[in-house]
Amino acid sequence: MIIGIPKELFAGETRVPFMPASVKKMAQAGAEVQIESGLGQALQIPDSEFTDAGATVASDRAALLGNADIVLRLRKPEIAEVSQLKKGSIHISFLDPFNEAELVDAFAAQGVTSVSMEMIPRTTRAQKMDALSSQASLAGYAMVILASERLDKILPMMMTPAGTISPSRVFIIGAGVAGLQAIATAKRLGARVEAFDTRPVVKEQVESLGGKFVEIDLGDTGQTEGGYAKALTPEQIQMQLDGQKKVCAQSDIVITTAQLFGRPAPTVVTKEMISAMKPGSVVVDLAVESGGNVEGSVAGEEVVVDGVKIIGLANMPGRVALNASDMYSNNLHNLLLEFWDKEQKIFDLNMEDDILQGCVITTGGELVNQMIKDVRAK
């Protein structure tokens, strides 16, 4: 099988979807790997490193897409490029399938099997393929580093001849993968860390990392079977905001990581809460690309509201692009090798498998993913 990897064209994307180490693994498995010239340019990886690993280099992007049996990339493609894909080929990337109905329909019309990396099930067997988690973990780290650089204070307590400096207070809203990494990073930097999540089950995880879990009684909340937070009622949302306001007012840094799978991000920091914070405080909104957690945050920008810096910069994993690329590339080759037929040297699209049932969106000219079907039927 020919595996084709085109360059990422999305403005500002610093990550590379497939790294030389992964090329080597797939070449050893018997695949023919073709990369677009300049694939590793964002990380200053020359084409020669890919060819040394077993890839060939193509300068014609359209030909690369048209010849490939499997296309690997990071960002979702432009709809115009879907028509360049070979019928019966497999396309694997982040797709945002809940919000990209036209793109999904284009894959079906072209007869392409589309695989969404967002939809990899959160099961033990699929952990090594879970790109959402791998990228979120790095985002959690990057958010704390960015916030600490923007804050006009140090994070740790420091005892000096001139007096003792109190530790900065960091409040993290949302204790999923990104939030837990943010807690761990802020704690390692010496901050006093508090965290809140609508799922009481994560309290033990927060405390194991040295954070204090903020108790706000919201009644019955819980999480989905996939481990995501459930949507709250309007009454629960108001109780959450009231409880968080007091903590935000005392915090130097507030980091929001609350996202709902397949839906716009909830607002967890309001303008009223911002106005209650100390001037010079910093708020980082990880969910700015999916609607935003913070009122007043602007995608791709840093703004100041009532003296508080609100950071809405996109692509947090891209701020540590080398590690993010390595991890995403590993996720991809782990997915390929999990279903690789070693004798025939092909990707075995076994639609009886629970992992593929979860992440395959279209195949055989049809929309086949049950979760996306259910959303469309509503």
Q: Can you walk me through this structure?
A:
This protein has two domains: 2-129 and 321-377, Rossmann fold, CATH 3.40.50; 137-314, 3-Layer(aba) Sandwich (Rossmann fold). 34% of the residues lie in helices and 18% in strands. It has helices at residues 20-28, 47-52, 61-67, 79-82, 101-110, 131-150, 177-188, 203-208, 234-250, 271-275, 321-338, 354-359, 370-377, and strands spanning 2-5, 32-36, 56-58, 70-72, 90-93, 113-116, 158-160, 163-165, 169-173, 192-196, 212-213, 253-256, 282-285, 302-305, 308-311, 340-341, 346-347, 360-363, 366-367. The strands form four sheets. It has an eight-stranded mixed beta sheet, sandwiched between helices. The protein is globular and about 65 Å long. The protein starts with a strand and ends with a helix.
